[in-house]
Specification:
Length: 432
């Protein structure tokens, strides 16, 4: 009797597999026409496909927009570099402010376009997830229906089965077809497993896209802050100089004198602090301990300025390296750590700066920033954007000043121009 029940189940499996299971795996129009249910299924998935195609078209359009904006950004960077080499006059300074503001506006548009791209991609992934979940759910439902029907006919006898066919030959042919459908059903079940794997990948990618979207949103805030800072500095310059060249030159002379005095004070203090470094509390020199803090070209190295290529009466030792990437270039944490301090020295020393304390006994300083987006006490990951390249403080042009201190020697002091970072410096190239 167990043999009869097996044949019964095979026959029923053939009927219900053909009626319910296959339509949901085969979505082309020819299959959809076989039953009302499969036709609706075909329309449902076709609608999802149409929506995805529309989103992909929009994503492609955003990519073309990005290429044009990035070309504008490149041209503006070149203009800023050229302007920095010109004579220091009020007119040229105002022109630099205008170019930086224009460049930041393009940066903002680039970031907004990237945000839009990621939003579109998330929508596309949500449709993919919806499609995969619908395929899995519909087939689970119909396979469950098959099982229930097979169980309800489990006790049918041989005579009933034979009477359903015109002759014994038809019965045998039906059994052969059922065996073939069994193999096809097994194949389709494997495809369900693959669909589940695909669904898992889609969900993971969606989370990754959301994380990138959050990062870009923070980047946008930093760029907007940098643009506002430039507008404020331009406005203040007009107010102080009253748009008069002689007033500007007088101001410039006063600031330069103060800058040199401050720089001499830093030099004297840090000369002593370098001798206080305990080698046992810092990593041994080797590449890769720290990542480069931004993309660009090193314009000045570490050490005596007679060797690094920039010198004046007070500025005789460069306690870090300078990296030029272009005004507004993202500045990233060289290693994971905690924001130890931030400050704004105005036109003096490091301008806007950030210091990060790392667990390996090093503290890194990022100076002359156009804006800061990291806050004291905040934990940051290696490569995380913390600010943007600028030309604040004692700076002759847009660049990042990067210093590495021994943490045991690092401290900050309140000065009339703001919070000043100090410490025993180490050549960053020992660790980059």
């Amino acid at each position: 009797m167990s043999g009869l029940r097996f044949i019964q189940k095979i026959a029923l499996l053939a009927i219900f597999t053909a009626a319910f299971v296959l339509p949901f795996f085969n979505l082309p129009a020819a299959t959809a026409a076989q039953t009302g249910l499969s036709a609706q299924t075909g329309d449902y998935f076709q609608n999802l496909q149409n929506q995805q195609n529309a989103l992909r078209t929009q994503i492609k359009e955003k990519e073309e927009t990005l290429k044009k904006l990035q070309e504008q950004e490149k041209n503006l960077n070149n203009q800023i570099k050229t302007a920095q080499k010109k004579e220091t006059t009020l007119k040229n300074q105002i022109n630099q402010f205008d170019q930086r503001i224009q460049k930041l506006a393009v940066d903002i548009e680039i970031t907004e376009t990237k945000i839009s791209q990621h939003q579109l991609r998330i929508r596309e992934l949500n449709l993919e997830i919806k499609r995969s979940e619908e395929i899995i759910q519909r087939n689970k439902k119909n396979l469950a229906e098959l099982v229930r029907t097979i169980q309800s006919y489990d006790h049918a006898n041989l005579l009933e089965i034979l009477l359903r066919n015109k002759n014994f030959s038809d019965f045998l042919s039906q059994t052969e077809r059922v065996q073939q459908l069994q193999r096809e059903t097994q194949k389709r079940l494997e495809e369900i497993k693959l669909a589940k794997l695909k669904l898992g990948g889609e969900k993971t990618e969606t989370e990754s896209e959301k994380a990138e979207l959050e990062r870009l949103t923070q980047e946008l805030d930093g760029q907007k802050a940098a643009a506002e800072n430039q507008k404020t500095e331009k406005k203040n310059l007009f107010k102080i100089t009253k748009n008069q060249e002689k007033n500007y030159q007088k101001l410039l002379s006063q600031v330069e004198k103060q800058q040199l005095e401050i720089q001499q004070g830093i030099l004297d203090l840090e000369d002593k602090l370098r001798f206080a470094i305990d080698p046992s509390k810092i990593p041994a020199p080797r590449p890769g301990v720290l990542n480069w803090p931004q993309k660009g070209v090193m314009s000045q190295g570490y050490g005596p300025t007679s060797q690094t290529g920039f010198t004046n009466d007070a500025y005789k030792f460069h306690n870090g390296i300078d990296v030029v990437g272009g005004f507004g270039t993202p500045v990233r944490a060289a290693k994971e750590g905690v924001i130890k301090a931030t400050g704004d020295n105005g036109k003096y020393a490091y301008g806007r700066w950030i210091a990060i304390e790392h667990e390996n006994g090093l503290t890194t300083l990022y100076g002359h920033l156009s804006s800061q987006i990291a806050k004291p006490g905040q934990k940051v990951a290696v490569g995380q954007i913390i600010g943007y390249e600028g030309s604040t403080g004692f700076s002759t042009g847009s660049h990042l000043h990067f210093t590495v201190y021994a943490t045991s020697t690092f401290r900050t002091e309140d000065r009339w121009f703001g919070l000043l970072p100090l410490g025993g410096s180490i050549n960053p190239l020992n660790y980059l």
